[in-house]
């Protein structure tokens, strides 16, 4: 029926003379239909609760404050630090117990072979690497007198990385011709070691105990009371003045050319083999003169005294650089006088220069 009525309306609109009236009627009918649909829709929505209209964000939202400058970077840095701080405990607790010790890598060794050091730690190969503690590794390795300190790092692939710091020898020490030779490190501490591994070094001989004057200059009264006999035996050390002489000898080319030919006699030492090649007056001159430097088995003995040691060694180096025949033939060079050197031979009287 709707289709028929629509067809009739279309046919009526095509009749001549009736188009305006028919068009007006159609518009009125469409308006009525639209109004009827609107009323039906309103009736369907009468039972539903009305939704509150959302307010405009621009009118009700609070103004946004910008972050302070640098705050974002600080928060990111704090988060990264917290991540690193928590990663290590988690790594050591959950990962390391599952990884066995497979290999040991050693760096920093020159005197000791890395394979020799690694072999001492591979006794626990196959055990969880979490059971290998840094203090245990340091205790095992520092029992070797050549190793001063050791640090270890456990890697996720089962590798134990060990970094060692070896002692550096600056001299050999022998208290008497019959004693065994020890090595001296830059701090003056004596330690046993293979002399050939240390290379050519000057020899220091004589007693380690300083004289009363030197002891008073090196330490205060309280420190002297605190130093017991057991401490001196447990940690024998070379006097700082002797270390000063050794350091100064290495700075001059003429004296450092053959370090193994140099022998430093500490105060109170008559020297090894000195009586066999020296006359009575020479022994008397060198008996109590402080530090005495012997240059080679056939070279002169240099009296340095106990003060202005750097200046006197520099004066000795200047004399040797001159290649003077008088200096070359001297048996004793006395540098204890200010701004001059006294040369003494077995055949002649002392000569001042």
Structure description:
With 353 residues, this protein is α/β, with parallel strands linked by helices. Helices cover 42% and strands 16% of the residues. The protein is built from 16 helices and 13 strands. It has helices at residues 2-13, 19-44, 57-60, 71-95, 114-121, 134-142, 195-198, 212-218, 221-226, 229-234, 240-249, 253-256, 274-277, 280-286, 309-321, 325-328, and strands at residues 103-107, 147-154, 159-166, 171-174, 182-184, 190-191, 203-205, 262-265, 291-295, 301-305, 332-334, 342-344, 351-352. The chain has a 10-stranded mixed beta sheet with strand order 6-5-4-7-8-9-10-11-12-13, covered by helices on one side. A 3-stranded mixed beta sheet has the order 1-3-2, with helices on one face. Strand 2 (147-154) and strand 3 form a beta hairpin. Helix 11 runs parallel beside helix 15. The longest helix has 26 residues, at 19-44. The model is unreliable at 211-234 and 270-287 (pLDDT under 50).
Keywords for this entry:
353 residues, alpha/beta, 10-stranded mixed β-sheet, 16 helices, 13 strands, 42% helix
Summarize the structure.
The protein is of the alpha/beta class.
Helicity, as a percent range: 40-55%
Mean pLDDT: 74
Structural class: alpha/beta
Major sheet strand order: 6-5-4-7-8-9-10-11-12-13
The number of helical segments is 16
Number of strands: 13
> Which series of helices and strands comes N to C?
HHHHEHHEEEEEHEHHHHHEHHEEHHEEE
Q: Radius of gyration over alpha carbons?
A: 49 Å
Please state the overall shape, judged from the principal axes of the Cα atoms.
elongated
* Biggest beta-sheet profile: 10 strands, mixed
The proportion of strand residues reads: 15-25%
Distance between the termini: 148 Å
* Uncertain parts: 211-234, 270-287
């Amino acid at each position: 029926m709707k289709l028929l009525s629509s067809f009739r309306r279309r046919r009526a609109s095509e009749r001549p003379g009736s188009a305006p009236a028919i068009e007006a009627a159609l518009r009125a009918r469409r308006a009525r239909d639209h109004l009827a649909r609107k009323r039906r829709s309103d009736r369907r929505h009468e039972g539903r609760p009305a939704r509150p209209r959302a307010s405009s964000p621009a009118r009700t939202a609070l103004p946004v404050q910008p972050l302070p400058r640098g705050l974002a970077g600080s928060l990111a840095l704090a988060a990264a630090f917290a991540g690193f701080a928590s990663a290590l405990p988690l790594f050591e607790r959950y990962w390391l117990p599952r990884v066995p010790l497979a290999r040991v890598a050693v760096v920093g060794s020159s005197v000791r072979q890395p394979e020799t050091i690694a072999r001492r730690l591979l006794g626990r190969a196959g055990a969880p690497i979490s059971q290998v503690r840094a203090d245990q590794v340091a205790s095992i390795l520092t029992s070797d007198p050549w190793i001063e300190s050791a640090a270890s790092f456990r890697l996720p692939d089962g590798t134990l990385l060990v970094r060692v710091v070896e002692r550096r020898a600056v001299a050999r020490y022998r208290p008497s011709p019959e004693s065994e030779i020890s090595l001296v490190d830059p701090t003056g501490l004596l330690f046993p070691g293979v002399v050939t591994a240390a290379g050519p070094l000057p020899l220091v001989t004589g007693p380690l105990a300083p004289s009363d004057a030197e002891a008073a200059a090196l330490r205060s009264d309280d420190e002297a009371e605190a130093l017991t006999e057991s401490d001196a035996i447990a940690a024998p050390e070379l006097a700082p003045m002797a270390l000063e002489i050794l350091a100064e000898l290495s700075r001059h080319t003429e004296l450092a050319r053959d370090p193994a030919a140099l022998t430093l006699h500490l105060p109170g030492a008559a020297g090894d083999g000195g009586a066999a090649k020296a006359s009575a007056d020479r022994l008397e001159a060198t008996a109590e003169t402080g530090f005495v430097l012997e240059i080679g088995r056939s070279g002169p003995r240099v009296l340095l005294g106990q003060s202005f040691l750097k200046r006197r060694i520099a004066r000795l180096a200047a004399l040797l650089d001159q290649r003077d025949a008088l200096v070359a033939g001297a048996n004793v060079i006395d540098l204890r006088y200010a701004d001059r050197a006294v040369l003494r031979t077995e055949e002649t009287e002392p000569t001042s220069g």
